[in-house]
Amino acid sequence: MRILGWLFVGAMLTATGAVVMQAQDAAQPVGTMADVMTSMVYPAANDLLLSIARGGPKDEKEWIALQRSAVLLGESGNVLMMRGRARDQGEWMTDAKMLVDAGAAAYRAARAKDLNALTALDAPINASCVSCHKQYRPNVHPRS
Ligand code: HEC
What number does CATH give the domain 31-136? Predict the structure, then answer.
């Protein structure tokens, strides 16, 4: 089955396909897990949570800033799923996916300037940190 699968993949390989596969293999971790947290995950989540706590963006500029943080948060979830970063293919991926989903929802809310949708993300954003840290980083508060 597996061999058949590979034969099929091989047969399907076009020049474009080969480039795509090379690009996937080329993805490499930069920095430690703590670096990803402090450079990407934490600042993005912090911006979103602070904005929510303050009653949401006040003007166009703040909505655009929020949209950028939303992209950063969502994409940081993808970075956590990378080969070389993912600790397993089960619970870790589920927790990382929570970040992707929260980021994507925040992105949609920012594009639509939908304050209710944005505010509703307070709990899911926090939940993603707590859920993963409980299992993979015990005894540490997520917002420390
Ligand atoms: C899929 C798992 C996962 C998710 C989701 C996650 N973290 Fe982490 N986080 C970790 C792990 C693992 C560490 C421990 C890294 C180490 O010290 O090696 C960590 C550590 C941290 C640290 C400490 C970094 C340091 O300097 O030691 C901060 C801050 C942090 N996370 C913030 C967050 C926030 C905020 C969220 C949610 C928005 C979040 N994390 C979501 C796995 C995750």
Answer: 1.20.120
